[in-house]
Design the sequence.
């Protein structure tokens, strides 16, 4: 076992909580770009936040990235499907 790896469940959970906090910050940053994307689309007369071709392209890319990083591609795809759906809804609602 690597010296950096936690040795008890409390340490493991604390490490996971730290990663979750980093993810929250990154998701907040992503949300600001989703907001901007909605503004740009509105300025270009694009009304639909959902772009099926873009979604498929993103999912393919994230599966490949996951594989390269040692993350199960199925897990990555499930997460990104939910992430994309949530942010598409957010963008659509923010545009109202």
Sequence:
């Amino acid at each position: 076992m690597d010296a950096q790896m936690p040795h008890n469940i409390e340490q493991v959970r604390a490490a996971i909580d730290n990663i979750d906090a980093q993810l929250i910050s990154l998701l907040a940053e992503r949300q600001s770009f989703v907001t901007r994307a909605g503004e740009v689309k509105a300025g270009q007369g694009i009304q639909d936040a959902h772009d099926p071709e873009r979604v498929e392209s993103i999912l393919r890319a994230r599966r490949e990235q996951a594989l390269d990083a040692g993350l199960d591609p199925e897990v990555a795809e499930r997460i990104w499907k939910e992430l994309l759906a949530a942010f598409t809804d957010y963008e659509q609602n923010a545009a109202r």
